[in-house]
Design goal:
By secondary structure, the protein is of the alpha/beta class. The protein has helices at residues 7-14, 29-33, 37-41, 61-73, 88-91, 103-114, 136-145, 169-177, 191-201, 210-214, 218-226, 236-253, 256-270, 277-285, 290-307, 329-335; strands at residues 22-28, 52-57, 78-83, 121-126, 150-154, 182-185, 205-207. It is globular, with a radius of gyration of 20 Å. It contains 16 helices and seven strands. Strands 1-2-3-4-5-6-7 form a seven-stranded parallel β-sheet.
């Protein structure tokens, strides 16, 4: 979720309700410890986001410890270590899922961070580096011994990237192997999916990334069902209001052109499942100003409200292939460095 779960997006989702923990984009410790302005900016968060975790990545124990101290100094509630990103630019420097190839180094890093901070330390893992070297249970046991207080597992290997299905059975295996809380991640895009994962694994929590782009209310809906209520169903007016609110938050935080790009990124996922969503999306993609964006949003929702349809009236089952973002490379390539609950 690098390049997505920034200051603006996290606040938008948090305001919809049901979010237990907000997590920053993963942040380069090289950038933080060398005073890179973008890296420092990525640690920004609002009080409304608490509890809030800063997630860092890197392969050098000393710099990981320094960056952890900086996260605590800005007021983060939790320090999270990324041991999951599969991007080549991260892995080749020993960070992200590259640490799964070198558990002794990961152990050194965790111990260095643990002695540097007083806030809780958590760890985000993948299942292994390759399909033939699954070692997440071993890594989780070691992390628990180092004082890590929560394990999050994305049920894919580095080799898989974002292809195939996440292996939630390994979430269950880690849960049975350690005493600390364990959460799972991967392919949760519906209430039914989340409930099934809780039941099958006994996990303590679920992380949702791309599913929140498609449905900003998914956290609230899951909370509703687990607490015995009917899941909240937003109206068309609320869906329109969310897009407008997001664009307003973006406009307050960045120049118009970057804001347009971010808006199109969210709309690409958010319009999945809406009547005429593909055609509406194309109108947004071809908008070149804030005025055009706002006008096109208004026309779309007014047409839906009045006529119950838009364009060809089709509702997509799957997002278009051009909407997929399958790697944290997206942030690295755009920002030369480097996402809520992912």
């Amino acid at each position: 979720m690098a390049g997505v779960t920034d200051y603006t997006f996290r606040r938008l989702i948090k305001r919809r309700g049901g979010v237990g923990l907000s997590v920053s984009e993963f942040i380069s410790v090289e950038g933080l410890t060398r005073s890179n302005p973008k890296s420092h900016r990525q640690m920004r968060f609002a009080e409304e986001e608490r509890p809030f975790a800063v997630q860092i990545f890197g392969g050098q124990p000393e710099r990981m410890g320094m960056a952890a101290e900086m996260a605590e100094e800005v007021g983060a509630d939790i320090l999270d270590v990324n041991c999951g990103c599969p991007a080549p630019k991260v892995v080749k420097n020993g960070g992200g899922s590259g640490l799964l190839k070198d558990l002794p180094r990961l152990e050194t890093i965790l111990k260095e961070i643990k002695k540097s901070i007083s806030i809780p330390l958590t760890l985000k893992l993948r299942t292994g580096f390759t399909d033939s070297t699954i070692n997440c249970v071993e890594a989780a046991k070691m992390a628990e011994q180092c004082g890590v207080e929560h394990i999050q597992l994305h049920g894919r290997t580095k080799e898989q990237g974002y292809k195939g299905l996440a292996n939630w059975d390994l979430v269950r295996q880690i849960k049975e192997a350690v005493k600390i809380p364990v959460s799972g991640n991967g392919d949760v895009t519906s209430i039914e999916n989340a409930l099934r994962r809780f039941e099958e694994t006994g996990c303590d929590g679920i992380l949702i990334g791309r599913g929140a782009m498609q449905n900003p209310w998914i956290f609230r809906q899951i909370q509703d069902v687990t607490q015995g209520r009917a899941p909240y169903q937003p109206s068309l007016e609320e869906k329109q209001a969310v897009l407008l609110e997001f664009f307003e938050l973006l406009s307050e935080d960045m120049p118009e052109m970057p804001a347009l790009g971010k808006m199109k990124q969210l709309a690409g996922q958010f319009t999945k499942g809406l009547v005429g969503g593909a055609q509406f999306r194309q109108t947004l993609y071809h908008s070149h100003s804030a005025r055009e964006i706002l006008d096109n949003i208004g026309v779309y929702f007014e047409t839906l409200t009045t006529h119950d349809t838009f364009g060809n009236g089709l509702t997509e089952i799957e997002a278009d292939s051009d909407l997929e973002f399958n790697s944290c490379d997206v942030s690295i390539n755009n920002s030369c460095e480097t996402a809520v609950a992912a």
